[in-house]
Amino acid sequence: MASLRSRGSLTTLLLLLLLLVLMACSSFATCGATRDWQLDSSQAGKKGNGKSGHGNHGHPKPNPKPCPTPKPKPKPSPTPQQSPSSSPPPPQGGGMFIVLDYGADGDGVTDDTEAFQAAWAAACDGAPSKVIVPSNFEFLVGPISFSGPCKSEVVFQVDGKIIAPSSGRKAWSSGLLQWLEFRVLKGIRIEGRGIIEGQGSAWWSSSSSLLGSEVSGQVPHVKPTALRFYGSSDVTVSGITVRNSPQVHLKFDSCQAVEVTGVTISSPGDSPNTDGIHLQNSVNVFIHNTDLSCDTCVCSIGDDCISIQTGCSDILVQNVNCGPGHGISIGGLGKADTQASVSNVTVQNANIVGAMIGVRIKTWQGGSGFVKCIRFAKIKVSNVKTPIVIDQFYCDHGECKNQTSAVALSDITYDGIVGTYTVQPVYLACSDSKPCRNIHLSDIQLQLLKQRGRTYDPFCWQAYGDLQGPVEPPITCLRSKNKR
Questions:
Q1: Disulfide-capable partner of 357 in 90, 151, 313, 327 (CB 3.0 to 4.6 Å)?
Q2: Which of 362, 410, 412, 354 has the alpha carbon at shortest distance from 387?
Q3: Cα angle for residues 369, 371, 375 (degrees, 5° grid)
């Protein structure tokens, strides 16, 4: 009997303990859930607290989504460069098409245009192939189009020197807009250690890209681009030198997935309208480790090292040298009342020396469209007249009429712009009807090089944004609230 009582007491005790455990767990879960809810509510409240000047009613507004940094699609690395005396082997399964085997003389005097055209046609018609422009030769080539689509990818290996005709209307009769053109190609690679020589001095006597009459009856009235890519994808240009173009040195029009690396572009400092790299209607472009300057030349005074025009997005420019000239520009956009669109552009780790402007966005009055998600970061300027420029009243001739319509500019960041200026550190002239919104300036350290003529304080007009971190000189003209 005592044993049964003992067992009953033990069972009762166990039931009581189990009941206590269940009650404790329930209380802990409730407290945990309450605490989690309190944390969520606290964080939500913090997110809703901003310096907007308005009270938060109802649900807090989320922070604006930051603009992404462009990440161009990975592309296969170009064939490693070897000594000029021997070219790398062609892609597996293809062949090498040496222009000398197709009748080129390579003496710099005889016209080798037909030989280049024949070598290209053969390479384009088969398995992955390589056109070879060998070293130690100089090839005179007239206006030519290397057109696709090709059956396979083609490498155009330039180890020698290609020169443009310097005179003769016959030589230029078929090429009014470009000299060397690559059209409608997929997987085209231009590489090597050779030189593309535009011999542009015949055109430089006029500052206009469209001359009123032919120069001495020898060259056409339209200044051609030296090297142009049109309607192509997976394009790589590496290692070559392009110099002395009549106008733009390297142009990409309606292209996708472009990489430019290890390229040198140069022309005398007084050559007009000789932009370095010109982009329009192109997406996913990666320009890096490229020299747009040298000791005495490149990207002439009055021209852009890199020019980004309408229809461009996902552009990444980094580790480039630029100068003199007009620095790195977006625009001019909206000319002749046109619509423009540029977005998601990052320029970083650039050196700009002796230029009139460092980084610039320029638009014409009367245009429409947008420029947004632009980031200039870690830019070093030296002896630059005005390092930071937004000009929505751009006009390249004496007088332009005032117009209300304008391209809308927003979400523009300047981060880590450091160095020396000679005239004015910052110039932000935005449209009256479309003020610039969300301009962010941080870590700006610009020092006046020395007093050489008249200098100006930072200027802002209809520019809205914020300052973060150290800013020198002080930029007090930037408006702190974004106009809706």
A1: 327
A2: 354
A3: 175
Arithmetic mean of pLDDT over the chain: 82
pLDDT in tens, 137-155: 999 999 999 999 999 999 9
Strand partners, 317: 287, 347
In terms of Cβ atoms closer than 10 Å to its own Cβ (0-12, 13-18, 19+), residue 212 is exposed
Within 10 Å of residue 166's Cβ, how many Cβ atoms? 15
Rounded CA separation 67/470 (Å): 22
Amino acid type, 212: G
What amino acid is encoded at 199 in this protein? Q
Active site residues: 303, 326
Q: Tens of pLDDT along 406-434?
A: 999 999 999 999 999 999 999 999 999 99
Residue whose tokens read 């030189």: 195
Q: What structural domains and CATH numbers belong to the chain?
A: 95-210+218-296 (2.160.20.10), 304-484 (2.160.20.10)
Burial state string for 452-484 with b = 16 or more CB within 10 A and e = fewer than 16: eeeeeebbbbbbbbebeeebeeebeebbeeeee
Rg of the chain (C-alpha set): 31
| 469 vs 76: which has the higher pLDDT | 469
Which amino acid is it at 434? K
